[in-house]
Amino acid sequence: MDPVEQVVFDVAEHKAVVIGGGIGGLATACGLVGAGWDVTVYERAPAPREVGAGLSVAPNAVRALDWLGLAEPLRAAAQPQGIGVKSRAGRWMVRLREADLVGRYGAPMYAMHRGDLHRMLLDAVGADRVCTGHSAVAVDTAEDGAVVHFETGSGPREVRADLVVAADGVHSRVRAGLFPAHTGATYAGYVCWRGIAPAGVVVPDSDPMWTDTWGRGGRFGAAPLADGKVFWYASAGGPEGSMTEVTLADIAARFGAWHAPIADLLAASDPAALLRNDIYYVGDPLPTFTRGRVALLGDAAHAVTPDIGQGACLAVEDAVVLAQCVSAHDDVADALRAYDAARRPRTQRLAAVSGRSARVQQVAHPVAAALRDLAVRLTPTKVYLEAGAEALGWRPEPAV
Length: 400
Hints:
Elements: E1 15-19, H1 23-34, E2 38-42, E3 54-57, H2 59-67, H3 71-77, E4 79-87, E5 92-96, H4 98-105, E6 109-113, H5 114-125, E7 130-131, E8 134-142, E9 145-152, E10 155-161, E11 163-166, H6 173-178, E12 186-197, E13 209-214, E14 218-224, E15 230-237, H7 248-255, H8 262-268, E16 275-281, E17 290-291, E18 294-296, H9 299-302, H10 311-328, H11 332-361, H12 366-378, H13 381-387, H14 389-392
Parallel strand pairs: 1-2, 1-11, 2-7, 4-13, 11-18
Antiparallel strand pairs: 3-6, 4-5, 4-6, 8-9, 9-10, 12-15, 12-16, 13-14, 14-15, 17-18
Helix pairs in contact: 1-5, 1-10, 2-10, 7-8, 10-11
């Protein structure tokens, strides 16, 4: 086995290893570099990339990205908009316009290509800090550091650092190794398909809206992007691992009779670019997000379902708080205790909320769905704005 790479630490520049080169991992690297750390991101893919279609950047994540110094590129690449819910016939049940969100939270919802956010973060971190083709298989913790065991194309490799951040996703191998008794990810009960329709399918709206349409046992959502394209997603309840052979034509057969422009979006999309995922969240709360000098971050710590639009948002929040904590504490152990205390209660509450939201939004029984829709229509806009305060109202705070 290769010897452990020993690192001589400068007083002002400790060594951090980030496992996972997705949005959470790159945001973490960005924050730690800003805090004066020497950071290397290890990604198992052969090249830096982000698989996905579109995502939401909610007001809380807007503030987190602003804190990371990405205010200008975010606004250049993303489309500001409001949030709304429709019935399958096209009737508005909830409509929070961009001005409503800005008035309550100081920022709108943004929609953007997932790849654009990934590239933005990669540019901020620097590609020279990303090491690809490294799959983390285990982490050994100690009082003064941690050792990460990687599998690479040329064999095993071990790297030692002051701090290891595991941002390796909802099915995190690091989490499984550190918490072997934990149940792992919980299946949310539905499958989601995602795609992007080309520009020109939908006439740009002067009041753009991220719209979620609810039916019985299924939903369809769409959001305009800054380049005129439209990100869309569709979901259907079913057993874990089911519907693997569903095609874009099958999705059109299921949702095409719903309100316009759903049929047009599906007809214009590329069948070869269709993405399918079983949806998971961390329903069993972890007792802590840290072990020794290792911190779990993003989906590895607290994966939420897409139902509350907070997956990437919470990961970027985590990155900001971790950077604040290591800046405020000379001792890494103290910093990680502060990080855990700051992040675990909030994110675990939202993970539980997302699980409950999934069950409500995916309800299939016709009576239950009708009662759900009636309750949503009768709830005042102000109540919805206040209900979102826990998620959307977050702001970066100085580490205690």
